[in-house]
Amino acid sequence: MYETIRYETEGRVATVTLNRPEKLNAISGQMQTELVAALEEAEADPGIHVAVVQGEGRAFCAGYDITGSGTGGGGVTGDRDGLEKMMRNWLRIWDMRLAVVAKVHGYCLAGGTQLATICDITFVSDECRVGTPQLPLGAGYVASSWTWLVGPKKAKEMFFPSGEMISGTEAVEWGLFNRSFPADQLDNAVDEYVARVARTPKEIIALQKQSVNRIQEIQGFREAMMQAVEVDAIAHASKPVKVINAHIREFGLQDALQAFQNGQIP
Fold it and tell me: CATH code at 126?
């Protein structure tokens, strides 16, 4: 049924595994659509109380697949509409009447941090590399999630440069994620926590989530996420981003990364 993720259930727990390990589980449009569909399947199943989102291979998620076709055609307007669609997909996870737990290991970069933070609970391995986009190909879209959780000072510290990284331990200290564990203890820690959550009636979990999220909504969470759509669309239309994208198309992503690091672009 799914091509880019795996969906499995055991008892009251569903597990959704990002399954593009050759791409470090980079997020394509298809993967995001399938991820949300799988979580909606869990949400609709009265026997499933909690879902775990994890990554296959050596990374949770390395961000958006920028080698794909982008957010859509139609110039700035089409790009903006595509960005809004992706943001509303993330917010669909926020709205689900289901506990969603992210199990993060290896690398969690850029758009991968959006996924990890939109989940209700995020557990991470101590040494996981958690970071921002490696190239300045946009603005505000990923940073909005960080700003909400870690505050403006830390968000600016991370996003003014490109490609900044912190450890999983630091991500917890900053308030981005919930708890960190040694890599060899992460699976057991998540399993034990999820088992406790799964004992709670699904209706009560949904109401607890709704109450907590409603407080965030009153404080402006949804508007804070959605304002990033316009900002990122403007950034995509800027000359520096166009220069970098042209370099990627002509020479490839790795060459573009090297050229940026050497100060050759933009």
Answer: 3.90.226.10
Domain count, the chain: 1
43: in domain: yes
The DSSP result for the chain, as a single string, is --SSEEEEEETTEEEEEE--GGGTT-B-HHHHHHHHHHHHHHHH-TT--EEEEEESTT-SB--B-TTS--S-SSHHHHHHHHHHHHHHHHHHHHH-SSEEEEEE-SEEETHHHHHHHHSSEEEEETT-EEE--SS---SSTTHHHHHHHH-HHHHHHHHSSSS-EEEHHHHHHHTSSSEEE-HHHHHHHHHHHHHHHHTS-HHHHHHHHHHHHHHHHHTTHHHHHHHHHHHHHHHHTSHHHHHHHHHHHHH-HHHHHHHHHTT---
What pTM value is reported for the model?
A: 0.96
What are the tens digits of pLDDT across the range 195-244? 999 999 999 999 999 999 999 999 999 999 999 999 999 999 999 999 99
| pLDDT for the residue 1 | 87
Q: Has residue 211 been placed in a domain?
A: no
Domain-embedded: residue 257: no
